[in-house]
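Q: Got a minute? One more chain.
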Amino acid sequence: MAQTSLLQGKRFYCREWVFHKLQHCLQEKTNSILSVNSTPNKQASVANPVSNASKGAAWGVLLVGGPGSGKTALCTELLWPSSPQGVHRGLHRQGLAFHFCRADDSDTLCVSGFVRALVAQICHSGLVQGYEDKVRDPAVQSALQPGECERNPAEAFKRCILLPLLGVKPPQQSVFILVDSIDEGCHFGEGEQRSS
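A: Always. Here it is, folded:
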């Protein structure tokens, strides 16, 4: 599934502070990887990724905002910088994989397609040495099979993305997986709460 953002190629203005903050978070995590012998199978729910980075904990950044606040524009600029400053910043080179959900495109809302696309992008990124070998494992390949991946996408995500990433040596620099507009995959009707 070769998909991108509808905003790719459009000029992006303002919000430089967000990129500086993201760059700082990624640099802090890189420094902690280089200076601390972290345990790759340890996971934690981290509210402040920078302060806990030196403990070797798993972490992430959650960007929250209302409709039209610029989340997708920011994510697009992060992956495909439209300005010389964005290219110079180089955050796009740390992008391991991405996925943009769009309510008007059912392919982007398919969870098994999401898993397969992330696996393919991580393999082709060249940023995580040994991941592709881990994904060749028959148990991983069986989880990626169409029927199996559709029946249990959470298990496929775990077996094909999380466990192989945890089983390889961390890269020298921090990398990120970007998932945008997850809310577009949720359908809420009156008295209904289901997500695809």
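A: The two ends are 17 Å apart (CA to CA).
Q: Perfect, thanks.
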